[in-house]
Design goal:
By secondary structure, this protein is of the alpha/beta class. It contains twelve helices and 14 strands. It has a single domain, classed as Alkaline Phosphatase, subunit A (3-Layer(aba) Sandwich). It has an eight-stranded mixed β-sheet, with helices on both faces. The chain has a four-stranded antiparallel β-sheet with strand order 11-12-13-14, covered by helices on one side. It is globular, with a radius of gyration of 22 Å.
């Protein structure tokens, strides 16, 4: 306990320093001129699950409106394709292993300052609505640096139980009269409900199918072009259940349901944006939209997350400030990461970021798209529990993606893809002599990243013990 208190005292001192830097020499009027910040996140949204990118199977007019006033990065990657580790990294600007979040339902290391603490110390009114999950999905005892806006005990497993409350809590926050700028996080859970049709054990599965199943005669999305297996994938590579019992029609209904979930959460995003406009703050608010990780959605016959394919690791990232950011730009060049979100928000708000972050502000490449940006970005996963096999990594460069997994005997299991020639990641090039140079280059980039982030100092943590209600597996039915 003495060590914990000393860490807390250190945080107070550090944040007091941040506040002094942020507010020193500023009048109250000058402070008030700083922009508000609205960070909207969804859970399990693929980078292409938005009509702004031309997806004909989903209509997301409200998310599209954010993109219409800003820059949409399509080469945007999560730090870890799982809820808690990725979301925690977004708010800390540090890698999952550094902040000790290797699993779901794990608290962020209290020595690491997070976004709410940084913005509150800089004089912002900070509010958090929706899913947290570090460790509690919907904590009643607070989130460091934030006023928790919808203190609720989440019952059940569905977005219907929480997302409407998240929306309403955010709207009420925006209605307040205030003297200070605000930093508001709105964290929706949909389209995470797709986990149930994907085969997750829950007695609520029937409810999801009843709501989202296609009506008779509805046009269904086709199977993805990369529905098949990757040629040359190592036999020891991690694999998920491939749902061999699902026929083509079931896969397509599963995809249909996902896009309807997207449309549900888009409506709720729209209500929050409308409240921002009614509050008269639309012109003075930086809006950032992203997600914690993607969804396989039948690519490689994969459902869910926990893989480094584009479908699981790539997420939307939009930075928008009406009249300030370029309008309607789709950035398909720059590599970006959720680690860039906190420094970007700080840059636009004029708030000093924490002393150490691993990302960088995207403002320079937003204002000047000819700037180079990141040479590479990294994502990670933990495997095997404490003392287990260790971590897997992805290194994404401009043309290639490298994946490495610890094998059962301690060997290195690798895949390498040329994403320009093979965007579906259907052919593993790791064993081809012609690619030996690129393979070695990516190994070295990863080794440098692991050294920089001191990965060897942070052994993989054991999974958190979360009580789960007893439930029989409900059979998935596509009616």
């Amino acid at each position: 306990m003495r060590n914990l208190m000393s860490w807390r005292e250190m945080i107070k001192v550090a944040l007091a320093g941040l506040c002094a830097v942020a507010l020193g020499g500023q009048s109250a009027a000058e402070s008030k001129k700083r922009p508000n910040v609205l960070l909207i996140t969804t859970d399990q949204q693929r980078v292409d699950a938005m009509s702004a990118l031309g997806n004909p199977w989903v209509k997301t007019p409200h998310m599209d409106s954010i993109a219409a006033r800003g820059v949409y990065f399509t080469h945007s990657y999560c730090p870890y394709p799982l809820c808690s580790p990725s979301r925690s990294s977004l708010h800390a600007g540090r890698t999952p292993h550094e902040i000790r979040v290797d699993r779901n339902s794990v608290p962020i290391d209290p020595a690491i300052p997070i976004s709410g603490q940084v913005f509150r110390a800089a004089g912002y009114d900070t509010g958090y609505a929706g899913k947290w999950h570090m460790p509690d999905p919907y904590p009643s005892d607070g989130i460091a640096g934030f006023e928790v806006l919808n203190k609720t005990s989440r019952r059940g497993k569905l977005a219907r139980d929480v997302d409407e409350a998240t929306m309403n809590a955010a709207i009420e926050f925006l209605k307040r009269t205030r003297e200070k700028p605000f930093f508001l996080v709105v964290s929706f859970i949909n389209p995470h409900d797709i986990c149930l049709p994907a085969g997750e054990t829950s007695p609520l599965l029937d409810d999801v199918w009843k709501k989202y199943q296609p009506a008779a005669g509805a046009e269904l999305p086709p199977l993805p072009a990369n529905f098949g297996a990757t040629a040359g994938a190592p036999e020891t590579m991690p694999r998920r259940a491939r749902h061999e019992s699902w026929d083509e029609g079931h896969w397509r209904k599963y995809r249909y349901a996902y896009f309807r979930m997207m449309e549900d959460v888009d409506r709720q995003v729209g209500q929050v944006l409308e409240a921002l406009g009614r509050a008269g703050q639309e012109d003075n608010t930086v809006v950032v939209f992203t997600s914690d990780h993607g969804e396989g959605l039948a690519s490689h016959r994969w459902t869910g997350k926990m893989m480094f394919y584009e479908e699981e690791a790539a997420v939307p990232l939009i930075v928008s400030w009406k009249g300030v950011t370029p309008q309607g730009r789709i950035d398909r060049e720059h590599l970006v990461s959720a680690l860039d979100v906190l420094p970007t928000l700080c840059d636009y708000a004029g708030v000093p970021p924490p002393p150490l972050v691993r990302g960088q502000s995207l403002r320079p490449v937003i204002e000047n798209p000819d700037r180079p940006g990141h040479e590479f970005v990294v994502s990670e996963m933990a495997a095997g529990g404490a003392g287990g096999r260790g971590r897997s990594f992805m290194v994404r460069t401009k043309k290639y993606k490298y994946m490495v997994f610890p094998g059962p005997g301690g060997e290195r299991v690798e895949m390498l893809f040329d994403l320009q020639a093979d965007p579906g990641e259907m052919k593993n090039l790791a064993g081809q002599p012609a690619q030996a140079g690129e393979l070695e280059r990516h190994r070295k980039l990863l080794a440098e990243w692991k050294e920089t982030t001191e990965e060897d100092k942070y052994p993989v943590q054991a999974a958190a013990k979360v009580p789960r209600p007893k439930a029989k597996r409900a059979k998935a039915r596509a009616k």
